[in-house]
Every structure is written in C-alpha cells, then in structure tokens.
C-alpha cells in the first residue's frame, strides 16, 4: 500500500552506512508523500544490515503511526514537525557524522571559507542552540524540531537556501526535495565541516570567503541564469 514510499525511504537510509555517515543504528532518513499526507521513516534501533523496505514505518505529520509493525525512529517527532512546517521539503536526514557533530558539540556555526561551501549555500551553516531543560524534559523530539525552525526564523534564513543545520550538542539534520537529496546534503555537510575544521587547523585567522567569489559560485549553480551542469 505504501510500497513506493517505503522503497524510497529504505534506499535513502541504506546510503548512510555506504557513505560513512553512520555507525551501527545511528541516524535516520525519512521520505514524504505529500499527496497522502504521510512519511516513511526508519524503524528505531534496527541495524542497517537487517533493514528491509517493508520495515519502514508510515507516520502522519503528528508523528502517529499509520502503517507498520515496528516502532518508528526515536526522532520521528522532529521529522514530523519539519514536514508540517516546511511544506515544500520531500526528505529529511539525521546523522551523527563525525565532523558535523564536532562543530555541533562546540556550538559553532560553520563559517563559509571556500567555494565548496558556496557551491551549496551562500550562508554559514547555522548551529541551533542547545535545548533548555524544560524542552528536554518536555516533548523533547518535538522541541528539537522547534529549535531548528526557530533558529532559521531568528537568523532570517530560508530553508530552501540552507538545507542543513547543526543542533548544538547533538548533530546535523539535512533536508531536500527528496530523501535522496537530503542524504546528499548530509554528505556535503560532513565534507564542508571537515574542510572548515582543517582550514582552521592550518590558519586560525582564516577569513570568510569574499562575497563576489561566494556569489559567483552560488549563483552559477542556483541562480536564475545558472549554467552549472547539463541543465536537466
Ligand atoms: O540522535 C539519536 C540518538 O541520540 C538517534 O538519531 C539515533 O542515532 C538513531 O535513532 P533511531 O532512529 O534508530 O531511533
């Protein structure tokens, strides 16, 4: 009944260990079907090697299980709130990839140092603040989603221009038009995080990329007159 959505979700989840973005049962990917108002998400705590497409749990935007026999990811309420609030995203990925987590644990935005970063977004990668005790003791995973959404609102960032965030002391969340694109963004974020870390090791006074070069790289891929790639 939800076979296509479960297949999409399964294939995207299986990319995480292949790309070296997760160990064991870390992380999760979901894929949404906007027409039916549901999303598929990885079940909680099942090793990737044991997952099957039919294990993907179907939930609605209130994080209620609609179909499936397994318990959904512990992060389901975060995914649900992001889908509910940002009605134009098609997939979400959460990992515990090493360099992105290191920046999150340090509580730092990732500065835009070079063209690799600018090819994907013309903003620093934001780090949303750690949750308050009340949030942690309340509806924790729902509040995690709120913290991400509020960070974008507070910084006047568009979730279409920046498809990635760090959550302080936790780790990265990424999204995109599809589940596959959200995984791509998770891999890009990890690479950007690693490059920025190494850059500061070599020169702690490294300056942000100058705006002309930043805009050239961002606009040639994402602008109205973009000319990167084959145009399809
Ligand atoms: O953030 C966490 C744990 O802190 C989770 O993302 C786990 O890494 C995966 O949990 P499940 O999706 O298997 O419940």
Describe the model.
It comes from Fibrella rubiginis. One of its GO terms (cellular component) is cytosol. Keywords: Carbohydrate metabolism, Isomerase, Metal-binding, Zinc. Its cofactor is Zn(2+). One of its GO terms (molecular function) is metal ion binding. By secondary structure, the chain is α+β, with helices and mostly antiparallel strands. The protein has one domain: L-fuculose-1-phosphate Aldolase (3-Layer(aba) Sandwich). Helix content is 41%, strand content 14%. It has eight helices and eight strands. The chain has helices spanning 3-18, 76-85, 98-106, 115-118, 133-137, 140-154, 179-202, 211-222, and strands spanning 28-33, 38-41, 57-60, 65-67, 91-94, 127-128, 164-167, 171-176. It has an eight-stranded mixed beta sheet with strand order 4-3-2-1-5-8-7-6, sandwiched between helices. The longest helix has 24 residues, at 179-202. It is globular. The two termini are 31 Å apart.
The best one-word shape is: globular
| End-to-end C-alpha gap | 31 Å
Strand portion, in percent? 5-15%
Radius of gyration: 17 Å
Could you say what the CATH architecture is? Answer: 3-Layer(aba) Sandwich
Residue stretches low in confidence (pLDDT < 50, at least 5 long) are: none
Number of domains: 1
Helix content: 40-55%
Bound molecules: 5-O-phosphono-D-xylulose
């Amino acid at each position: 009944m939800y076979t296509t959505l479960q297949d999409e979700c399964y294939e995207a989840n299986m990319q995480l260990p292949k790309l070296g973005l997760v160990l064991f049962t870390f992380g999760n990917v979901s894929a949404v079907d906007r027409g039916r108002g549901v999303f598929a998400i990885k079940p909680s705590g099942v090793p990737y090697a044991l997952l099957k497409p039919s294990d993907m749990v179907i939930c609605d935007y209130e994080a209620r299980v609609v179909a499936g026999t397994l318990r959904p990811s512990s992060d389901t309420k975060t995914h649900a709130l992001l889908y509910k609030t940002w009605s134009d995203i098609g997939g979400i990925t959460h990992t515990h990839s090493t360099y992105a987590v290191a920046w999150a644990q340090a509580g730092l935005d990732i500065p835009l140092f070079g063209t690799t970063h600018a090819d994907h977004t013309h903003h620093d990668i934001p780090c949303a603040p750690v949750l308050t005790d009340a949030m942690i003791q309340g509806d924790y995973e729902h509040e995690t989603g709120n913290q991400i959404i509020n960070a974008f609102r507070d910084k006047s960032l568009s979730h279409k221009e920046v498809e990635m965030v760090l959550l302080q002391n936790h780790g990265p969340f990424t999204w995109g038009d599809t589940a596959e694109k959200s995984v791509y963004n998770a891999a890009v974020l990890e690479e950007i995080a690693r490059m920025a870390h190494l850059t500061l090791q070599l020169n702690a006074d490294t300056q942000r990329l100058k705006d002309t070069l930043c805009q050239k790289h961002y606009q040639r891929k994402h602008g109205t007159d973009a000319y990167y790639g084959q145009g399809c």
